[in-house]
Amino acid sequence: MAEVRAKKWWIICALIAATLLAFVLARKPMLIAYHQKKMKEAWQDADANVEPSVSIVQQLFKELFGIEPPAWRHNSFSRYEHHRNRLVLLGYLVHREFVFEHLYCASEEYRALWKIVTARFSSIHTTGNYSETSEPVRIEVWDTPEMIPKWEAFVHEHDVPDFLERFADELKAAEQFFERHRIEQERAADETSGS
User: Fold this and answer.
1) How far apart are CA 23 and CA 14, in angstroms?
2) Would residue 108 count as lying in a domain?
3) Domain extent at residue 114
4) Total structural domains in the chain?
5) DSSP output for 21-89
6) What's the order of all strands across the beta sheet hosting 94-104?
7) Each residue's pLDDT tens digit, 59-108
8) Is 129 domain-assigned?
9) Considering only CA atoms, which of 150, 45, 40, 42 is closest in space to residue 94?
10) Does 157 map to a domain?
């Protein structure tokens, strides 16, 4: 009888250990999927200029404690940044800053560079400095680890004094890309309104 109890005990312990191990191994992919989903939702809310509705939990928080819930829940872009930063902590995204030596803000090159960047990379998130002064261009990138070498190569290739002359064809292709995108959006809007 004691032998049967010991076997049952070991089986139960093994099942609990296997469950815990499965949870630990599956936790990171589940967190990544969750933060990707929430980041996308927050970006769509920000893009549509829509704030999420107040949830029951948020209402209870206000009633119980007499204060508003944390502000990041209300501001779409703050929620977006929160989830993006969590993806960095999980190692799904990498945050890098690139500083150009030969390209400056408030210039024609600056505007051309952003057209090329936006057409070439469909990265998770990029931002850049803008100033009326002629400070060097800085681009902050949040992208997957396998894309960072492509960003490094891009910056190395495009950080040149003769940028406009050297990349005139690429700029023209980027402008054509945006024109096609604009036409597709207009066509989709016409189809939606015609339905």
Assistant:
1) 14
2) yes
3) 93-194
4) 1
5) HHHHHHHHHHHHHHHHHHHHHHHHHHHTT-PPPPPHHHHHHHHHHSSPPPGGGT-HHHHHHHHHHHHHH
6) 94-104, 136-143, 125-128
7) 555 556 555 555 544 578 888 889 999 999 999 999 999 999 999 888 88
8) yes
9) 150
10) yes
